[in-house]
Amino acid sequence: MAVPPPPLQSLTPELKLTLQERMESVLIRLTQLNSRTIFFREAPLFSAFRDRFGYNRSPNSKAGDSIPLEPGRDFVQCFRETIPLTSYDAYEPFVSRFFENSPLYSSVRDLLSPGFPDFIAQTSGTSGSTVKSFPRYPVNDNDHYIPRGIRFCGFNSLRISGAVKIVNEEGDLQKELPVTSVGSGILRRRMGTELKDDDQVMSQTRSFFEAINCRIDH
Predict the structure, then answer these.
(1) Residue 145 belongs to a domain
(2) 3-state per-residue secondary structure call for 42-94
(3) Dist. CA 56–CA 45, nearest whole Å
(4) Which of 66, 73, 74, 179 counts the most CB atoms within 10 A of its CB?
(5) One domain, residues 172 and 69
(6) Are 165 and 176 a contacting pair, CB within 8 Å?
(7) What single DSSP character describes residue 35?
(8) Is 154 helix (H, G, I), strand (E, B) or coil?
């Protein structure tokens, strides 16, 4: 039997350089993507970072614009020096905009990530005194947490606790977002279930479980 090689105690200079370059590339890509958001433009915790790159001084900077970042500007070090660790308190004032009375399309589009979330997830509140809300934005179609080739049967609820109705300046409905648990939201996203489809989907679900119960009883 072949003996596995001993574990690395340290990275080789070549591997360390490759890892640093990849980390910086990914960090820049993610930051450029999310620098188009209202959260990046307005959140106080990004102030020093924005100032370092001249974003605060740009009179025309607005949500939807990405910050120009260059890999050769010691970006990772700047990120570490200017952006602190965060807690939910930093995000709550922005998340709460979804729960204003008839939130405007322009006030929540590109809020925490480009575009709109698929749903707004809520915690159970068991670990604290209040329920926390987290907008869940679309993910890459190839981003599966289930390994390919594996099949399983799982049951989850499609239940929602509410819906956020987003309107335009004239008060016309533009978009509806379900407010639900993470599991329910992910299941609804994978099934392509929209709020307008709930009655039909729920009737199909009832028929499915009625058939199962009938087989169990007999």
Answers:
(1) no
(2) HCHHHHHHHHHCCCCCCCCCCCCCCCCCCCCCCHHHHHHHHCCCCCHHHHHHH
(3) 13
(4) 179
(5) no
(6) yes
(7) T
(8) coil
Which candidate, 94, 120, 106, places its Cα nearest to that of 40? 94
24/18 Cα distance (integer angstroms): 10
Number of H helices, E strands in the chain: 8, 4
Residue 11 lies in a domain: no
- Number of domains observed in the structure of the chain: 2
Q: Which two tokens stand for residue 57?
A: 């001084």
The model's pTM is 0.74
- Return the structure tokens found at 52: 């370092």
- Torsion, Cα 168 116 157 165, to 10 degrees, reads -10
What is the C-alpha separation between 94 and 109, in angstroms, rounded? 11
Q: How far apart are CA 172 and CA 34, in angstroms?
A: 28
At 177, which helix (H) or strand (E)?
strand 173-180
Structure tokens at 212: 């199962």
